[in-house]
Design brief:
The complex is a heterodimer. By secondary structure, chain A is mainly alpha-helical. Chain A contains 7 helices and no strands. Chain A has one domain. The longest helix of chain A is centred in the C-terminal third of the chain and has 25 residues. Chain A is globular, with a radius of gyration of 16 Å. Chain B is of the alpha+beta class. Chain B has a domain of 164 residues: Beta Barrel (Thrombin, subunit H), CATH 2.40.10.340. Chain B contains 4 helices and 12 strands; from the N terminus they run αααββββββββββββα. In chain B, the strands form 2 sheets. Chain B has a 6-stranded antiparallel barrel. In chain B, strands 6-7-8-11-10-9 form a 6-stranded antiparallel barrel. Classes of the chains: A mainly alpha, B alpha+beta. Chains A and B meet through α1, α4 and α5 of A and α1, α2 and β1 of B.
């Protein structure tokens, strides 16, 4: 399937439809809310963070720090954790994307994934700091595996999310 | 040649810079974090959003539940028969205790009536099923399928077939959150079954064993001792199995012994739990100020009488 390959840097993507952006954020939220058991739980990536990061890089005019923050609040309630924890993490993620945005898309997908991994791990450490200051116990080491799994999913997520924006080839 | 003016107006107005926005939302987040952890101001907001999210969460469980149902349906007949036989055996094994229980309870009631002691707790319980474990990797919590609508109260103790599991910490309309005894600083007042020594069991967080803290190195506690609830907190009725002592480290340089325990209940795999209703019959606290006044008066009067 040729159409499933990632877009080449010279390929100009059409602007994303707002409903598609919102739908993908909703799907990311739902994927985060799916109840799973313990062994999978510690490796499960934060789908919502990946989706937000993608849109912050591709459509910075539409999805930015504010949107990410509000989505984070919804996630905080869904997770029954401390209010503001995901909100802060996603806002920082969106700000990081603002820096990444101009150069990250020039790289091949797997190299993008490495840069995304750095950002996701940084956010995980920020959440760790916030919770630790709040008096929570330290989680297991596998806590840091979840953002790495998220980075591995980056190529797949970007290809899926950019598919509707690719120009249709006229033959 | 005229220099180019530095403060050129922005071609496209994009609102505040990302850094300004980050600062604004960052400060807002920290304020929320503070308000939530320190003062719990936001419980009402949480309840409201939780009600909206509830049907979504239940719907998300459906695929997993359907899979489990199908797996169960095609489960081997042999396994079910075995399980049935085992349950029957267990029922018979417990029969003496159950049959004796009614007599003991009656006797107990009569003795209480003689001594004019109030019943310590109403023995009502609500059976619940675990929906899922909390997604938060920092805490040890599970969500169960009954909430305020079924009469679950915050603070109630939760047990399974083999021992104490935890305590209800948040009640939503249709489900409640149970904090497990392994959660950090979750405390259960306990008593050593063999010697009667009292202590408090503290959880130590994910992946670490709970410990008895603030226990003297000379306390009568040995490896293999069973801990039961002491009932002093009026959350858990006395005598429920809690944990077993795994290791006792007595270091003469330390003020307290380090006592590592292993929970007896299936903390992380029990599916069916029992929420014990809160002890209702707490005796009223004596009004201290008035009492001491009365006592003083009476002693004064007594003194006056004596000479």
């Amino acid at each position: 399937m040729g159409s499933f390959a990632p877009a080449a840097p010279e390929e100009i993507l059409r602007p994303a439809k707002p409903w598609f952006v919102l739908l993908s954020i909703a799907v990311g939220l739902l994927l985060n809310l799916v109840p799973v058991g313990e062994p999978i739980l510690s490796y499960r990536p934060d789908f919502l963070a990946i989706v937000l990061l993608y849109w912050c890089i591709q459509e910075p005019r539409f999805v930015g720090v504010g949107t990410a923050w509000m989505v984070g609040l919804v996630m905080d309630v869904g997770d029954a954790t401390v209010f503001g924890q995901h909100a802060l993490a996603y806002a920082v993620l969106a700000y990081g994307a603002e820096f990444f945005r101009r150069r990250v898309l020039r790289f091949p997908l797997w190299q993008q994934a490495v840069q995304v991994a750095v950002l996701l791990v940084f956010c995980a450490l920020l959440v760790l700091l916030v919770r630790f200051v709040g008096g929570a116990a330290l989680p297991k080491w596998s806590y840091l595996l979840s953002p790495l799994v998220g980075a591995l999913l980056w190529p797949l997520a970007s290809v899926l999310l950019q598919t509707p924006q690719r120009p249709s080839r006229s033959r | 040649m005229r220099p180019i003016p530095v403060d050129t107006p922005a071609f496209f107005n994009r609102g505040p810079s990302p850094l300004a926005r980050l600062a604004f939302f960052g400060i807002l987040s920290v304020a929320l974090l503070f308000a939530d952890t320190r003062y719990r101001y936001l419980e009402n907001v949480r309840q409201a959003v939780a009600i909206v999210l509830y049907p979504v969460e239940r719907a998300l469980e459906l695929p997993g539940a359907a899979f489990a149902f199908i797996a169960d349906y095609f489960g081997s007949k042999r396994r079910l028969a075995d399980e049935n036989a085992m349950l029957r055996q267990e029922l018979v094994a417990r029969a003496p205790a159950t049959q004796g229980y009614a007599r003991v309870q009656e006797e107990n009631a009569r003795l209480r009536a003689l001594l004019d002691v109030r019943a310590q707790y109403a023995a009502t319980a609500i059976a619940v099923q675990v929906l899922y474990t909390s997604r938060d990797p920092f805490t040890q919590k599970v969500f169960v399928d009954k909430g305020a609508s079924a009469g679950v109260q915050a603070g109630a103790g939760v047990i399974d077939a083999t021992g104490v599991v935890g305590q209800v910490t948040r009640v939503l309309p249709y489900m409640s959150e149970v904090t497990l005894i392994t959660d950090r600083d979750q405390a259960v007042p306990v008593q050593v079954e063999r010697s009667g020594a009292r202590s408090v069991l503290f959880g130590n967080g994910t992946g670490r064993s709970p410990e008895l803290r603030f226990t003297s190195p000379t306390a009568d506690i040995r490896v293999g001792d069973r801990l039961v609830t002491s009932g002093l907190d009026r959350t858990y009725p006395a005598g429920l199995a809690v944990a077993e002592i795994v290791d006792v480290i007595r270091d003469t340089g330390q003020m307290f012994a380090r006592i590592v325990c292993k929970p007896l209940a299936g903390i992380d795999h029990s599916e069916f739990l029992l929420v014990l209703s809160q002890s209702s019959a707490m005796p009223p606290r004596p009004e201290e100020a008035n009492d001491t006044d009365a006592a003083k008066k009476s002693t004064r009067r007594a003194r006056r009488v004596i000479p």
